[in-house]
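User: Hi! I have a protein structure encoded as tokens and I'd like to know what sequence might fold into it. I'm fairly new to this, so please keep things simple.
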């Protein structure tokens, strides 16, 4: 596809470094955007053609996935530990965004599953449930141990320091 654009995003708390590459591998645009939904969506709306976007899994991944999914043709959240190319050579946000766009263009990224929002909520609830079960088990064991200790102390008189 001649009109296809491959977009690499290097996402941080305050800014997103963007590299836009065409199907031939030529960088057609680079930019630094504020990490805000309106700013990013306005940027994407200004691009023509079929948009394929990638960024690494991280703190902002779930929010960014939900934000971008309806606006792009292809969205890949990739595993940063499996992107060997990003570890070699110079490191900067601009270079990382370019490398991500190129890896997306070459279809060499290892995707990380990002399901629908409902699935994520269900997984989070299940994780919280398991944490609560562990905490309750730990507290119950602690209470039983404390009760056993108090039973042993109740019947005993200590000779040292006791005016009984």
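Assistant: Happy to help. Inverse folding works backwards from shape to sequence: for each of the 164 positions I chose a residue that suits the local structure. Here it is:
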């Amino acid at each position: 596809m001649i009109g296809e654009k491959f977009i690499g995003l290097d996402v941080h708390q305050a800014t997103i470094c963007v590299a836009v590459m065409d199907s031939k591998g030529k960088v057609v645009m680079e930019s630094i955007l504020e990490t805000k939904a309106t700013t990013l969506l306005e940027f994407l709306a200004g691009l023509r053609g079929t948009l394929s976007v990638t960024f690494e899994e991280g703190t902002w991944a779930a929010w960014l996935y939900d934000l971008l999914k309806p606006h792009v043709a292809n969205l890949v959240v990739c595993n940063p530990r499996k992107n060997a190319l990003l570890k070699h050579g110079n490191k900067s946000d601009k270079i990382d965004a370019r490398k991500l766009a190129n890896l997306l263009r070459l279809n060499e990224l290892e995707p990380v599953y990002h399901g629908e929002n409902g699935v994520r909520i269900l997984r989070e609830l299940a994780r919280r449930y398991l944490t609560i079960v562990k905490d309750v088990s730990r507290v119950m064991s602690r209470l039983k141990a404390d009760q056993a200790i108090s039973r042993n102390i109740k019947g005993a008189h200590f000779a040292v320091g006791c005016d009984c």
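A useful reference point when you look it over: The helical segments are 37-45, 61-68, 84-87, 93-105, 117-154. Feel free to ask if any position seems puzzling.
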